[in-house]
Amino acid sequence: MAQRIILADPRGFCAGVDRAIQSVQTILQASSRDIPEGLAPVYVRRQIVHNKHVVDDLHAQGAEFVQELSDVPDAAAEAHIPVVFSAHGVSPAVQKEADERGLWIVDATCPLVAKVHREVVRFVNNGYEVVYIGHRGHDEAVGVVGEAPEHVHLIESEADVPSLHFEEGSKLALLTQTTLSVDETAGTIQALQQAFPWIEMPPKADICYATSNRQGAVKELARQCDCVIIIGSANSSNSVRLMEVAREALGDRGRAYRIDDAGELQDEWFEGVETVGISSGASVPDELVQQLVEALRSRGYGDVETLDGVRENMHFVLPPQLKEFRKARA
């Protein structure tokens, strides 16, 4: 049988990532050339999305990425230089800091993440404690927990459930990080329901459609391949999970790897491999996939086909602050 490549579908950019990247690009394209000396045309708090290639590309175009708002020069507010919040969202404390400094904020938080923020506020205002399943330290989780730190209890797995203590019958709700799937949280949710049978489950609409679709595609991909390559950065939660899903689906039949780009391929990965499957995280540009395809073609994988998958038509409008920005720059 000829060596071949199968591309997962869907893969790559989701609507929230596309919206966040377009937000920064829109500012860069509309910015005048008379930016005060020493200032960037746009500042972005943290990585706009968790992909180093996207960040490096936007930085090369002029975007300045900062870890905290304190790293944004005071002169940026005076010059009305936009500061973009990443797709992962921020806590009220960060928003308050921006307001106090008079920074011109463009909020590129994914609407699905923003929805979870609103749910936290609604539950807490109604007297609930919230159990939140997420990755400790992940930007999205930090922002959500920051809505009400004393009432939102973050856990990462079922092993953390015994550390929780709530009175029987108390108001208790469950929410999850949007990049986690039903499969990924099933064991933790079961443990929570056993410990606290009255806990209210998260709305199904909170499950990120892109996460579910991409994991489903990778499961099917793994059934047809000897080796699966996932493109995505190490700090991308959904990319790492795609690799884990592929490994689980492959079992002893094959291997799965995560890479940032084709330059990380190792020849020994493909010994005895006839079919290589490719997918990518929700923040990965498709050009990296095409570069990987070309690298594999040079290794003899000449046939390329695409796995039929879910058709995605989700689209999010750009942040409303961009309309004001365009008017100011017109």
From TrEMBL:
Binding positions (dimethylallyl diphosphate): 50, 88, 138, 236-238, 283
InterPro entries per the UniProt record, alphabetical: LytB/IspH (IPR003451)
Residues bound to (2E)-4-hydroxy-3-methylbut-2-enyl diphosphate: 50, 88, 138, 178, 236-238, 283
GO terms, molecular function: 4 iron, 4 sulfur cluster binding; 4-hydroxy-3-methylbut-2-enyl diphosphate reductase activity; metal ion binding
| EC number in record | 1.17.7.4
Catalytic activity as recorded in UniProt: dimethylallyl diphosphate + 2 oxidized [2Fe-2S]-[ferredoxin] + H2O = (2E)-4-hydroxy-3-methylbut-2-enyl diphosphate + 2 reduced [2Fe-2S]-[ferredoxin] + 2 H(+); isopentenyl diphosphate + 2 oxidized [2Fe-2S]-[ferredoxin] + H2O = (2E)-4-hydroxy-3-methylbut-2-enyl diphosphate + 2 reduced [2Fe-2S]-[ferredoxin] + 2 H(+)
GO BP: dimethylallyl diphosphate biosynthetic process; isopentenyl diphosphate biosynthetic process, methylerythritol 4-phosphate pathway; terpenoid biosynthetic process
Q: Which Pfam families match?
A: LYTB
CDD domains in the record, alphabetically?
Answer: lytB_ispH
- Catalytic positions are 140
Pathway(s): Isoprenoid biosynthesis; isopentenyl diphosphate biosynthesis via DXP pathway; isopentenyl diphosphate from 1-deoxy-D-xylulose 5-phosphate: step 6/6; Isoprenoid biosynthesis; dimethylallyl diphosphate biosynthesis; dimethylallyl diphosphate from (2E)-4-hydroxy-3-methylbutenyl diphosphate: step 1/1
* Cofactor binding, note field: Binds 1 [4Fe-4S] cluster per subunit.
| Keywords on record | 4Fe-4S, Iron, Iron-sulfur, Isoprene biosynthesis, Metal-binding, Oxidoreductase
Cofactor(s) in the UniProt record: [4Fe-4S] cluster
As for family, the record states: Belongs to the IspH family.
Which NCBIfam families does the record match to this protein? ispH_lytB, PRK01045.1-3
Q: What does this protein do?
A: Catalyzes the conversion of 1-hydroxy-2-methyl-2-(E)-butenyl 4-diphosphate (HMBPP) into a mixture of isopentenyl diphosphate (IPP) and dimethylallyl diphosphate (DMAPP). Acts in the terminal step of the DOXP/MEP pathway for isoprenoid precursor biosynthesis.
Official protein name in the record: 4-hydroxy-3-methylbut-2-enyl diphosphate reductase
The organism of origin for this protein: Bifidobacterium magnum
Gene name, Swiss-Prot/TrEMBL: ispH
